[in-house]
Amino acid sequence: MKKQQVLTVLIIAVLSVVVLSSFISTETEPIIKGYQIGSEVTDINLLNVDNKRISFSDFSDAKGFIVIFTCNTCPYAVASEDRINALDAEFKTKGYPVIAINPNNPEVQPDDTFVLMQQKAKEKGFTFPYLFDESHKVYAQFGAAKTPHVYLIQKEGDKNIVKYIGAIDDNVRKASSVKERFLANAINELLAGKEISLKETKAIGCSVKV
Question: Nearest to residue 131, comparing CAs of 82, 77, 69?
Fold first, then answer.
């Protein structure tokens, strides 16, 4: 009986050490969060659905950019397509064009191929660049976790600075039920020379498929 008790104590001790070691290892692993409010954004160079490569530097007259990570397939992204078109129509002429980026890997999500992106852009009449993050490095650099996931960028001298991160509005599922336009409000505050009152919201959508 005593031998069994000693063995039990030893097993518990060993398991405790293993669990503690695992916890410590996890806690010390670096966590990559991507861009935060105030971060300087590196220029991009991605293939657009018109087979031309697009960079932020191509938009010399822009005051900033509405960067939206989205895709062909996520129901939340599909529900946002008309809104994204409307945002481009509303703010492109005011200096904030939309740049949409598909971060998904077609090997994981077959309906997110570049060819199907081209079809989607044509069918929906996208008025903005729809870029393919083929290397899957740009979405990681931004820290985008969802589709859709929004980053509002403002030009400050020769730098592009993140001003807002999160959702387009407060109802990604149903445009007719939107009560607060987070992104539009943020842009309008920038245009008015004001500090953005709500700089971050939670992006709700499908996880990026890589």
Answer: 69
When divided into structural domains, the chain yields a total of 2
In this prediction the pTM is 0.84
Tens of pLDDT, residue by residue over 70-93, are 999 999 999 999 999 999 999 999
For residues 83 and 170, state if they share a domain: yes
Contact 74, 111 (CB under 8 A): no
**CATH number, domain with residue 93:** 3.40.30.10
Q: Does residue 180 sit within a domain?
A: yes
Write the burial class of residue 167 (CB in 10 Å: 0-12 exposed, 13-18 middle, 19+ buried): buried
3-state secondary structure 112-173: HCHHHHHHHHHHHCCCCCEEECCCCCHHHHHCCCEECEEEEEEEECCEEEEEEEECCCCCCC
Residue 115 and residue 58 share a domain: yes
Domain check: are 86 and 114 in the same one? yes
| Phi, psi of 17, deg, nearest 5 | -65, -40
Domain encompassing residue 54: 46-207
- Given this model, what pLDDT does residue 33 score? 80
How far is CA 54 from each of CA 66, 168, 179, rounded to the nearest angstrom? 14, 23, 33
Per-residue pLDDT band at 46 (split at 50, 70, 90): very high
3-state SS assignment for residue 19? helix
